[in-house]
Amino acid sequence: MFPLQLSRTNQSRIALVRAVLMPVLVTVIIAAIHRTSGGAIIVNAPRDITHQVIVQMIQTAEDGGTNPATAFDNELRFANIESRIDDIWAQAGVDVRILPALSVWQDSFALHGTSSPRDVSDFAEIFARASLAGVLNPDPYVLNMILVDTVPGAFPVGTNTVDGLSFYGRNGMVIAIGENLPLFQAGRDGIAHVVAHEIGHNLGLTHPFGGAVGLSNLMSPNGATEQLTDAQIDAIFGTEARNDDIASIPFGGTGFLRPITTVPEPTSNAAFLWTMCAACLANRRFRRIKS
Ligand SMILES: [Zn+2]
Does residue 233 share a domain with residue 268? Predict the structure, then answer.
């Protein structure tokens, strides 16, 4: 498919860095951060939206509540970043919904750890502490996105840098956003790129092409564009995206992609009744998901 270039903005203000690729415990981290060009969102043509991924934002701060990690700033900028993530995942027919943080999680260790660069094993520790603190979304099919100042395996985030880390097939990502980035479009696009990349890992995608960096693919470390191949899109809906080995999914599950049921417009009384029925089904499905 031909790439669609959705915008071209400031190419120079953003530096998205640091690929983290190293073994930890029983899992190989396939994660990280990407893209030095910044600015444009370049994707393939959108597909009909058939599925949704829900992401829970969790914002950390120091013990006592000071120095909260940079989030998406105000509602307008939040909506803008979410829309850019939607632009990226629309090429797979996937809508991404981000739930705002309900409160600030006061945990200095989660915010920045105790070493620099931060120990990569802190990833598991952050999620263990989050679980104990009860700040993770209770729905195992919601992806948890913990905002920090320093991503495990990296140095503290720069003001114009965004870092991300996740594990293949697990529920969760850790993101560190430079404080300037929410303030300008290229910066918000950089945030969208990294969050979209980490969502890809959570849907089961690895770094393609042997992990080569800077390629025109969302999942390439430091990828030059946000494009996904047809094979990658097939993979997230196929068995490759599922990981039923519970031992390797300590903080969630699989099935992050939820089918979206569309309700047709009523054109007659009969159609209206049918619509009511469809609404009941949708409602039931909603309750099941929430349980
Ligand atoms: Zn990655």
Answer: no
